[in-house]
Amino acid sequence: MELRHLRYFIAVAEELNFTRAAARLHMAQPPLSQQIQHLEAELGFQLFRRTKRTVQLTEAGQVFFEESQKILQQVDRAIQLGKQTSRGELGQLTVGFVSSSAHNVVPAILQAFRTRCRAVKLELHELTTNEQLQRLRFGQIDIGFVRPPIEEDGINSEIVFREPLIVALPETHPAADSYQFRLHSL
């Protein structure tokens, strides 16, 4: 049995008229009648009582109609949820972050994400850069906020925040009086 057979059956059950059901399904009436007959043969019971003037559901047909509607609603829901999940609007996102990003970068990005994707559950893990790279490789986290440089095959990275690097030196250090200097001079 295919889903289209359920759709055909439901159309006839709702219309209680093969001609109107065929028009609704954009098909000819004889093939629709044949499909319903094949469905009845496959099921092993009669779905409709037919006369020249009326079509009525049998008792078994009524039960099958109610359950078929539930099946198609569930299929439609599964399709909708699958689409939402594929677009990242549903499911779970596991995020790794270095501790320093928890104060400035991660909250703003996650808040913007939460605004757009309310149904996605966030799971956060504070990890070092190396731990995140390892977990990314093994699919244990979906995204990580790390410190560069990142030179890993199979991992794409993008800079989302830049901050100045500050050096703290003892007052007695020769470079302590300089406002700026080159890193290699240390």
Write up what this structure looks like.
- This protein is an alpha/beta fold.
- The chain has helices at 3-15, 18-24, 29-43, 59-86, 106-116, 129-137, and strands at 48-50, 55-57, 91-97, 120-126, 143-145.
- A 3-stranded parallel beta sheet has the order 4-3-5, with helices on one face. The chain has a two-stranded antiparallel sheet with strand order 1-2.
- Helix 5 links the parallel strand 3 and strand 4.
- Helix 1 (3-15) crosses helix 2 (18-24) and helix 1 (3-15) crosses helix 4.
- It is rod-shaped, with a radius of gyration of 32 Å.
Please tally the β strands and state the result: 5
The biggest sheet, with number of strands, parallel, antiparallel or mixed sense and barrel status, is: 3 strands, parallel
Strand content: 5-15%
Number of helices: 6
Helix content: 40-55%
How far apart are the first and last residues' alpha carbons, in Å? 75 Å
Shape, per Cα inertia axes: rod-shaped
Class inferred from helices and paired strands: alpha/beta
Q: Helix-strand pattern, N to C?
A: HHHEEHEHEHE
In short:
The chain is of the alpha/beta class. Helix content is 45%, strand content 12%.
List strands and helices in order, with pairings.
Elements: H1 3-15, H2 18-24, H3 29-43, E1 48-50, E2 55-57, H4 59-86, E3 91-97, H5 106-116, E4 120-126, H6 129-137, E5 143-145
Parallel strand pairs: 3-4, 3-5
Antiparallel strand pairs: 1-2
Helix pairs in contact: 1-2, 1-4
